Amino acid sequence: MPVTPDLSFRQVAPPYDGDPSACMRQLDGLPWAAGVAFTLHGIKMGIRVSSTTMLERIEAALPAGAQPVDGPDVDFLYSVTGNGSEDSPEYTSHADAVPIARTSRLGDAIQAVNEDLARLARHASRGRLVVRAGAVGWEGRAILVLGPRSSGRSTLVAGLLWAGAEYYGDELAVLDAEGRVHPFVRPLSLRCGVGSGPVQLAELGAVAGSGPIPIGAVVATAYRPGATWRPRGLGLADAVEMLVANALTGKREPDSVRPVFDKILRGTRRFSGERGDAGEVIFRILSGLSTVFGGSGREPG
Questions:
Q1: What is the DSSP letter of 294?
Q2: Which of 13, 14, 12 is nearest to 243 (CA)?
Q3: DSSP assignment string, 35-50
Q4: Domains (ranges, CATH) in the chain?
Q5: Fewest beta carbons less than 10 Å away: which of 41, 47, 233, 234?
Q6: 145-178 per-residue burial string, b: 16 or more CB within 10 A, e: under 16
Q7: What is the pTM of this model?
Q8: How many CA atoms lie within 13 A of 99 on its CB side?
Q9: Rounded mean pLDDT of the chain?
Q10: Which helix (H) or strand (E) holds 241?
């Protein structure tokens, strides 16, 4: 696969999404030496590296079906950087702005990218929908967390995990046509930027979901200092369009995924609103949904 000459990769943001996060801007400002862009199951991806010696090893492990493309706009972007000295090297791998590996071994940094890419490809090849959203499990149902970049989505997901929810996704959620959410386990994006290491579930005392569960609720929210959580109902059409705008699979054919999202969101609880600190809302969300989901009435915490 040829090296892409234009290394100024840009993520294609949803229409209502803001500018790329500060973490992504840090990465964009680094001196990139080489890169490659390709499509895989309808998702346009890019991989950029700080040294040309890295690229050959990455390309050799790309999943079958990856097709080279031109142009800087990509839906999903991996970055591999090398820092430190010759005697004490340090490599960091990012999936978008999320650190997924920090290691002294180049092979481990490349493997982290290849494994994450293979996991994405595996879900997409099975016809599952990959969307930019957080996802947790509670009382046997999934809660999807939607919000623009830098909206505190990852902080809210982490708070829900701390309160006892199961981890299904942080930056990405995987849905099937039956309306079930599948685990997409990777480090959380609570630390980001150049030189940052990944945040593993164990650091939060959290556990990952073990299998697919049906969607029970959709929470669309963004953090605003001093805001009070006063949720309002989110219409089905608005929720569907949010998922369409944040879909990686089917992004270029939105009419093909819109009916699927419409089907799987029917019967779910949907609400939106600005929030203040995550601690203000996590107990209200989980306590309220325990009753709605018809579970054990389990209290968070």
A1: T
A2: 14
A3: EEEEEETTEEEEEEES
A4: 10-125 (no CATH), 129-292 (3.90.228.20)
A5: 233
A6: bbbbbbbbbbbbbbbbbbbbbbbbbbbbbbbbee
A7: 0.84
A8: 19
A9: 83
A10: helix 236-246
